[in-house]
Amino acid sequence: MQDYPIGRTDIPWNEDEKDEWLESQTIQRSYADEVLSKFIRISKDFKKNHYGVLPIDASRYPLYAFTTSKWDVNKPNVLITGGVHGYETSGVQGAIEFLIHHAPRYSRHFNFIVAPCVSPWGYETVNRWTTNAYDPNRSFAPISFSAEAQLLMDFVKGFISSEAKALLAHFDLHETTDTDNSEFRPALAARDGLHIDKWQIPDGFYTVADTKKPQLSFQQAIIASVEKVTHIAPSDDEGRIIGAKIISTGVICYDKSSLLLCGGFTDAEYVTTTEVYPDSPNATPQSCIEAQVAAITGGLDFLLSHAK
């Protein structure tokens, strides 16, 4: 097991240790000030849907998704999710930036469902996990232990079912940070009573495609768009990124449905998980947000040219 202040060597956490972990978390920023307050700037072309609350504090953590107001059943449908891991700031802010400044012009061609901050408690506590020490991005199962995952799945599936048309694409916005090695992987090792090696954090942007439907040209279009904003992650000393084989510059694959990832819970034909590296000396908070937006617009431009 990695060194971690909670738990016993090689023994998974019990409920008392999970409670101890929860009690050690502190509020570090405001969901209301940094996320909810920006919604007023989103065009009336998009309807604000209140799809649930987090049970830890219903008044503090309402959940919202924006959908195209004048839904057109003849247009393809696109899902954008940010903040599945709440601490990954640019995913949240990038989704909002896209909604405010770019979504209106793309609405001529697509219907959108955008959930900017799936895990607001994680956003405020700068955390990867839920309050019950689950990773929401390993929790997109039919019956989930993560309220964040369950509520999002219920809303998206219910909405799409009512509109009688499947999703064409899903952009799931994430970051890879130095705290993966300093906090979150050690916590995971302690929680599960395992030894988990640190990995080489990639310096730059990359995408994670779905092993079953990688849509490589789509991923490459995203990389080409983001490359105009920030640098693309090179492979590590073993020719990999976070342990996965590179299938193209800045592109790796995960089997998303088997890993219960957010990117695997729909039947979307085109799926990408973006990964921004905010800790790079060459990155700024704004450039990270711009990279997320460039990933979305690059992918949408590709779909306009290539998808039926």
From TrEMBL:
Could you say which cofactors this protein requires?
Zn(2+)
Q: Where is the Peptidase M14 domain?
A: 27-308
UniProt-recorded Gene Ontology molecular function terms: hydrolase activity, acting on ester bonds; metallocarboxypeptidase activity; zinc ion binding
Q: GO annotations under biological process?
A: proteolysis
**Domain of life, source organism:** Bacteria
InterPro entries according to UniProt: AstE_AspA_cat (IPR055438), Peptidase_M14 (IPR000834)
Sorted UniProt keywords: Hydrolase, Metal-binding, Zinc
CDD domains according to UniProt: M14_REP34-like (cd06231)
Q: Check the record and name the Gene3D superfamilies matching this protein.
A: Zn peptidases
Tell me which family the UniProt entry assigns to this protein. Answer: Belongs to the peptidase M14 family.
Q: What's this protein's name?
A: Peptidase M14 domain-containing protein
Task: Show the taxonomic lineage.
Answer: Bacteria, Pseudomonadati, Pseudomonadota, Gammaproteobacteria, Alteromonadales
